[in-house]
Write a structure and sequence with these properties.
single chain, alpha+beta, 6-stranded mixed beta sheet, 52% helix
Length: 295
């Protein structure tokens, strides 16, 4: 277990080291940082998202001397095809097919009071998630064993009843035994398949060792379950992708996306950010905003 855990933490530390430095998340940054501008529709959205984070508020509460908190901002990203205008030299073209990049479902759940502490916290969280995935596979293994044992008991009961009925009815009334024999043969074949499936799960006495092996296997191959992808966009101020030849002002953003065990079929965009205590909205303002959204 220990070598596998060391392998997982070593790989994850190298992976997290590739993540760019934390960006300032603020109203001022929305006007100057192309990433923060792309992530949030308006400058007011920045404080709203971070002020809604319970993890961020707890971090600031636990560290009253900290002027800022470092956090992982996770988002869903969607590319949508639309029609719009584009500038080619002195010519403006309308009804041009364009791609708009939209960010939604902003989440702030992992926080720390320094960038180094945040990077280490990310490593520990992902190691925990790998272990949880292993435990989930163990649970599935246990449920399958229980299901197979119940199925075996049912099949054996049906086979015994069929044998008794066959003997009793034929002794009283006579008749062809071929149908009963065929049914018994089918049930016996199902029992054999059931026994093979149970055998593949190993003995119950070996369950603990087998479960540890399953967790170790996941930790020993972290790169198969956790990795980063990057995608570059040239975006204008409206998050429209600027194609070659289009002369509109644009900034290149390189998005980092993570594949993690919790969502193997979905990739989330993420960025490390810094958020100042002074930008945190009072809780009463957050409640008023929530009521406004409900109306």
């Amino acid at each position: 277990m220990v070598p596998a855990a060391h392998r997982a933490t070593g790989y994850l530390r190298r992976l997290v080291a590739q993540v760019p430095a934390a960006r300032e998340a603020s109203v001022a940054a929305w006007a100057t940082d192309p990433y923060i501008h792309a992530f949030f529709a308006t400058p007011d959205d920045v404080a709203q998202v971070f002020s809604q984070s319970e993890a961020l508020r707890n971090c600031l509460q636990d560290h009253p001397a900290a002027d800022e908190v470092f956090a992982v901002l996770g988002m869903a990203v969607n590319e949508r095809r639309t029609l719009g205008a584009a500038q080619y030299g002195a010519t403006t073209r309308t009804e041009v097919a364009q791609t708009t990049v939209n960010f939604s479902d902003h989440q702030v759940r992992v926080c720390a009071v320094s960038e180094a502490a945040l990077r280490e916290e990310i490593v520990l969280r992902v190691v925990d998630q790998l272990a949880l995935q292993g435990l989930g596979e163990i649970e599935a293994d246990t449920l399958r064993r229980d299901s197979l044992e119940q199925e075996r008991a049912l099949l054996r009961t049906r086979l015994k009843i069929l044998e008794r009925q066959g003997t009793g009815v034929r002794s009283l009334l006579g008749g062809d035994a071929s149908s009963s024999f065929a049914e018994a043969t089918r049930l016996q074949a199902q029992l054999d398949e059931n026994d093979q499936a149970l055998a593949s799960l190993g003995l119950k006495t070996e369950a603990l060792e087998r479960e540890l092996q399953m967790v170790c296997k996941l930790l020993a191959m972290p790169d198969a379950h956790v990795y980063l992808l990057t995608k570059k966009f040239l975006l204008d101020r409206m998050n429209v992708v600027v194609e070659d030849g289009d002369t509109r002002p644009a900034q290149e953003v390189e998005l980092q996306m993570a594949r993690i065990p919790t969502s193997p079929d979905a990739l989330r965009v993420f960025s490390m950010v810094r958020f100042k205590r002074g930008d945190l909205l009072p809780e009463r303002d957050m409640l008023a905003e929530a009521r406004r959204l409900l109306i």
